[in-house]
Amino acid sequence: MTGDAGGGPTSGDITSWAPSEWFTNPATSSIWITAYMTALVPSATGTRRPLVVDLPRARVVLFDGTLTYFDAGGAGLQPGEDGSLTASFEPQEKTTPRGVYAVVILPFDVDGTAGDEPATRSKVATIAGLIGALVGRIAVFRKLYDNVREMSGSRTTAFSAAMLNPGSLSLPRIDASRVDLLRTVGGAAFISDSGGARLQLSLRWFDASIQSDDNVDSFIRCWIALETLAMPDTTNIAPINDALAVGYGLSIDAVRDRFRVGRLYGLRGDIVHSGSPTALNAAVDEYLRAIFIDTLVSLEGLPNEQRSEQIRTASAVALREYLGYDFGAP
What is the pLDDT of residues 104-155, one digit of tens each? Predict the structure, then answer.
């Protein structure tokens, strides 16, 4: 979610920190700015010079001072009694206390060509990981804001955290059957044995997956959840196929042909070992989550609601694009 805030300079005229070679026409260009608070490093009261690190099409500035920015942290979705949602978004201009900050700057709109928000966020996260690993986690202790500043200095766009459109999801089932389901699986998770501990860890990874705003990160986290749940020797996907076979009443060969868990495992390998693809259709995420849910309920001996079959049928085109198999075939 974004909001525009016209007016005076932000971040101490931070546009002057951008290398001039990034743009041919600055009047139609902008920079993306992400700032992190660095903890436990006292300010030198203006005597510490900024440290500048130039990376390919990116600049990191370790800065001692104050930053003025537009904050979109109050953005959110407010529920109505009728089940509707109303977006609230009013960016506010703020100035940080004097301190030490890590500021990541990238070109965004370039010479009239609009910026790519997901790709930019991904690159910022990569750079933050680099800083955290080599400078110290405390150098990027807490992210303060994402802003886009026009090079002309006339406008700043404030970005809130990414929000999933709830209309893209299935409605929750809030009824007595869910109470029984939660009690059964919850009871299994909190048994004091290795199986219970593994199930707890698996559910925490599943939560990390559904809370992620990046489809690739979400996919990897969900695969870890599935691996923790049903792959005790880490590389053998047979237990997943076995669980799906029980849940759907199909043969192992039919499950392999129908759900193609091996293709999902291959996609996981491509991402982890080759770094590609760098983006995924949300339907692929939803399909892997459905496989996880079907596997979970089958392993717990509960009725299967055929989540995977529903996604497989509804999203055949997207799944074929990423997994190389015609899921629309009978």
Answer: 999 999 999 999 988 898 899 989 989 988 888 888 998 998 999 999 877 8
> Helices then strands (H, E): number in the chain?
10, 11
| CA–CA distance, 202 with 152 (Å, rounded to integer) | 49
The full set of domain ranges for the chain reads: 2-159, 168-323
- 8-59 residue pLDDT tens: 333 457 888 899 999 999 999 999 999 998 888 777 755 567 888 999 999 9
Are 38 and 138 in contact, with CB atoms under 8 Å apart? yes
Q: Which residues pair with 4 in a beta bridge?
A: 157
User: Structure tokens of 121?
Assistant: 């966020």
Are the CB atoms for 250 and 301 separated by under 8 Å? no
What tens digit of pLDDT does each residue of 156-184 get? 887 666 556 666 666 566 567 776 777 78
Among 142, 247, 164, 260, CA closest to 213:
164
> For tokens 């991402």, what's the residue?
271
User: Is the bond into 303 cis (omega within 30 degrees of 0)?
Assistant: no
100 near 9, Cβ under 8 Å?
A: no
